[in-house]
Amino acid sequence: MARITNQGKALIAQKQAAGQPVVIDRFIWAHIPGLDHTQPVNPDEPMPSAGQIKNDAAPTQAGYVNPDLVVYSSVLGSNIGTWSFNWLGLASGDTLVAANYVPEQDKTATTGDDIGNNLTKNFALQYRDAQDTSGVTISADTWMIDWTARLDGIDDRERNANQDIYGRQTFINDGFKVERNGGYTLKAGWGYVAGVRINQAADADLGDPGALPKDVWLDVALEGDITGVVATVTPKFSNTTLTDYTDSAGRVHYLEKIAAINGAGVVTDQRTSVTVADGETLADLFLQKAGPADETTAGTAREATLAEVVAGTLSKIFVSPAKLKAWWDQVRVWDNIKNKPATATRWPDHSEVDGLGSAATKNAGKESGDVALLGDPESGTGGAIVIASGRTPNGSWEKRNDGMLIQYGKKSIPSGNGKTTTIAFPIAFIDTSYTVVGDHENRTPTQGTNLVNVGPATVSGFYATTWFWVPGSTTVNFIAKGRWK
Question: Which stretches make up the Phage tail fibre protein N-terminal domain (predicted)?
Answer without folding.
Answer: 3-155
